[in-house]
Design a protein that fits this description.
35% of the residues are buried. This protein has eleven helices and 21 strands.
Length: 376
């Protein structure tokens, strides 16, 4: 698996470089840094541009813990030749969950993963009730999640590592992995030289991905938006359209809209969501109707022996979907239908009617069961 991954991630393939060249795009390898509002240096070369797009991504956040140097990050995890039996993850975000599920299935039998989370619950941006269900499904795979944990240090003891906590826990592991999140990567860019504003969340952008410098755009993980691959792609598209429109003295009609961005945790089962969590609706005092169930016994899941499938659909009075949350073996497919319904403002009644002829027994064919309680 590692070798297959490296074939995929190891550098930019020559055919891609050739394709870029054919399209009139030069690839210059090196570290870029701003030297002025429209100028950049890459090592000892200097460039001036009509428009500049920053797309520098994100890096693992520094861990302010003694012994943090003993922790490996996600890139190093994916380079391991063998998975050890006892793995501790620092932080309960999507990387920790996905890697823990990966290790619990592909590691030696008896693999034990422990996720140590500082907050009262892991996966903060996801729906609390659904996260509790995913955590219960994870526990069945030998993944333990401990919350409200303040890590005080990491030490090496021979071949082992000891993680200590403020409440005197000592967790022994063969490997300690960084799962505490990623921060926008712009520390060596000298944004100030170009008058670009940024915070710890990322580079500030408007809905056309323009930064505080009107000649500079920021897209992807370095922008203060959402760190997902396809969000980066959508932002790049919006920035490109804005740059082209500007050349003709117009404003682009295409703006970013983050109200229906689907996100999936690639665990087993997967948890996918789009739109709001129930708590977010409650905090905003938004009235909503809910259809939800867990331990789904529909044939789609009985057939494959999955007993932890669950769903929650939230809709407003007019039948517009406000949020959808799916735990299933193909939550990704189902969530996409909800995302399309939200993006195109398809109300529950129409979506229900359009879903009746979905090929059966696909996961998507269950949509009618999820939507029916909202029809009344
Ligand atoms: C373990 C892991 C799993 C993930 N899984 C998913 C997933 O399942 N689905 C999903 O949607 N997203 C996932 N993501 C997030 C996804 O990888 C990012 O959202 C996406 O890669 C962002 O693209 P980007 O172009 O902004 O940044 P990147 O892909 O990080 O690219 C940024 C590039 O800029 C280069 N760079 C940085 N600074 C400079 C500089 N000064 N000069 C020149 N070059 C520079 C970097 O070296 C890098 O090559 C995952 C991330 C991780 C770490």
């Amino acid at each position: 698996m590692r070798d297959a991954k490296n074939r995929f991630t190891g550098g930019v393939p020559q055919r891609t470089v050739d394709g870029l060249h054919k399209a009139g795009i030069d690839l210059i390898r090196g570290h870029a840094r701003f030297t002025g509002s429209q100028t950049l240096s890459v090592d000892d070369r200097h460039f001036t541009a009509e428009a500049i797009v920053v797309a520098t991504g994100a890096v693992p956040m520094p861990l302010p813990i003694p012994g943090a140097g003993l922790v490996i990050d996600s890139s190093a995890f994916l380079e391991l030749a063998h998975l050890p039996e006892r793995i501790v993850f620092i932080g309960g975000g999507f990387i920790a969950f996905e890697f823990a599920h990966f290790a619990s299935r592909l590691g030696p039998s008896g693999t034990r993963c422990i996720i140590l989370e500082a907050a009262p619950r892991p996966l903060g941006p996801f729906d609390a009730e659904m996260v509790a269900r995913l955590s219960a499904a994870s526990a069945e795979e030998g993944i333990e999640i401990r919350c409200n944990v303040a890590i005080t240090g990491i030490e090496r003891a021979g071949k082992e590592f000891i993680v200590t906590t403020a409440d005197n826990q000592r967790v022994t592991a063969d490997l300690v992995v960084h799962g505490a999140g990623r921060i926008p990567d712009f520390k060596d860019l000298d944004l100030a030289a170009a008058g670009i504003e940024a915070s710890a969340r990322g580079i500030r952008v408007d809905d056309r991905m323009t930064t505080s410098n009107p000649r500079v755009y920021a897209v992807g993980d370095c922008a203060a938006t959402i760190q997902l691959a396809r969000v980066a792609d959508a932002e790049a598209q919006v920035a490109a359209e804005a740059i082209i429109a500007r050349r003709t003295g117009q404003e682009s009609h295409t703006a970013m809209d983050y109200s229906a961005v689907p996100a999936t945790l690639f665990t087993y089962p997967q948890y996918a969501m789009v739109g709001k969590t129930e708590k977010a609706l409650q905090e905003a005092a938004t009235p909503y109707f809910k259809s939800s169930a867990h331990g789904l016994g529909w044939p789609t899941y009985r057939r494959v022996g999955l007993h932890s499938a669950a769903y929650k659909v939230l809709a407003d009075r007019e039948g517009q979907i406000l949020g959808a949350h799916i735990i299933a073996d193909n939550a990704t497919g189902i969530i996409n239908t909800f995302a399309l319904a939200m993006q195109n403002r398809i109300p529950v009644a129409d979506l229900h009617r359009q879903s009746i002829m979905t090929p059966y027994p696909s996961r998507e064919s269950d949509l009618i069961y999820m939507l029916a309680p909202l029809l009344a």
